[in-house]
Specification:
This protein has 144 residues and is of the alpha+beta class. It has one helix spanning 2-23; strands at residues 24-37, 40-53, 58-61, 68-69, 72-73, 77-86, 91-99, 104-112, 121-132. The chain has a nine-stranded antiparallel sheet. Strand 5 (72-73) and strand 6 form a beta hairpin. The chain is globular, with a radius of gyration of 20 Å.
Length: 144
């Protein structure tokens, strides 16, 4: 009986640490980048290192020179970016998401400039992410 109480107390004390660990993590995502433009189609490998703090709703990429807001945090998915610009001079779209159950990484970026088809580009990222312990957001030293 005493052991059961100690075990229950220990699990209660450890719960915040476990929760925090699930809220902060790194992902290494690898896959294929397919690009399409007037100069042709191309396919090449890509790899990115992402760091997440879900409690703060922030993430950064690679060397983490900037923190970005996570567009949507859902139990089964993270949407990093979901933006669209539709003006007379530009039509662009970017959406990057990660399936939290499978680790699937999917991103699409498209730019279309009316009257300038040579500037039109579509990028499609597909890949898989693996989780790693949170390596932290860097403390950048700035002049101002």
């Amino acid at each position: 009986m005493k052991l059961a109480r100690i075990t229950a107390l220990a699990s209660l004390l450890m719960a915040p640490a476990a929760l925090a660990a699930g809220q902060q993590f790194d992902l290494i995502c690898k896959g294929t980048l397919k690009s399409s433009s007037t100069t042709g189609d191309k396919s090449e490998p890509f790899e990115t290192h992402l760091r997440f703090d879900l409690e703060r709703g922030k993430y950064c990429e690679q060397k983490c020179r900037a923190l970005f807001d996570i567009a949507s945090i859902q139990p089964g998915s993270l949407t990093l970016t979901d933006k669209r610009v539709d003006t007379p001079s530009e039509d662009s779209f970017i959406r990057i998401s990660i399936n939290r159950e499978t680790g699937e990484y999917a991103g699409t970026s498209a730019w279309r400039t009316p009257g300038r088809p040579e500037l039109n580009v579509i990028l499609k990222y597909t890949g898989t992410c693996e989780a790693y312990p949170f390596s932290g957001f860097p403390d950048l030293q700035t002049k101002f």
